[in-house]
Specification:
- By secondary structure, the chain is mainly beta.
- It has no helices and 19 strands.
Length: about 210
């Protein structure tokens, strides 16, 4: 199985154009792609002030809060509804999925918030994001071509049928690629007490594409 690994020293942080926060790009595919031609992109953002999200037509997004009190998402669909129609995201919330075309404005409940943002190009691939806490997990993703594992806190260990045990800790990101076309990805993951990880599974619409 092909495996790639990044740590905090590999990531690049850049300010938002509107000055409302900063974004750290964790990984992008294919390597060397930019915001106009990526197939998928994983990033972490620091939201410092209220404001709108950027528009990404043709992109599906998933957002999870990593730190801070809460992020309240207001959409155009709320018009004419009560404020309770807004989406309140906290560290305990499940990852929230929405389209890049959706007009979203973010409101901070208290202080700044750090979030994890996964984006995939809708006509090429799909993704799912799952939060994992301490424990042992058997992952058998038959339809997956790639899996991303991002460790937010603590330590974890993983093994696959083809590789020895890999240990990773807070700030580490790992990309696993299927060994053969349509073979899927299987792994065993053990997360230590206090660990927080995100598992992102990527399935491609064209099974033979690279």
């Amino acid at each position: 199985m092909l495996m790639q690994r990044w740590s905090e020293s590999d990531y690049q942080t850049m300010p938002w154009k509107n000055g409302g926060g900063s974004t750290t790009e964790l990984a992008i595919f294919p390597a060397g792609a930019d915001l106009d031609n990526f197939i998928w992109r994983l990033s972490a953002a620091q939201v410092a002030v209220d404001g709108p999200f950027s528009s990404f037509p043709g992109i599906d997004r998933t957002l999870a809060v990593l730190s801070g009190a809460a992020l309240i998402l207001h959409t155009k669909a709320e018009q004419g509804t009560t404020p309770s129609g807004a989406v309140h995201l906290t560290q305990n919330s499940a990852p929230y999925c929405f389209t890049g075309e959706l007009e979203v404005a973010a409101e901070l409940a208290e202080s700044s918030v750090s979030d994890l943002n996964m984006m995939t190009r809708r006509d090429v691939c799909t993704h799912t994001m799952r939060k994992l806490l301490s424990g042992h997990y058997h992952i058998d993703a038959q339809g997956a071509r790639q899996i991303l594992l991002y460790c937010v806190a603590g330590n974890a260990r993983l093994t696959t049928p083809e590789t020895a045990e890999e240990v990773f800790c807070s700030g580490d990101l790992m990309l696993l690629n299927e060994t053969h076309p349509a073979s899927g990805i299987a792994l065993e993951l053990t997360a230590d007490e206090g660990a927080i990880l995100f598992l992102i599974t990527l399935e491609f619409l064209d099974k033979g594409a690279d």
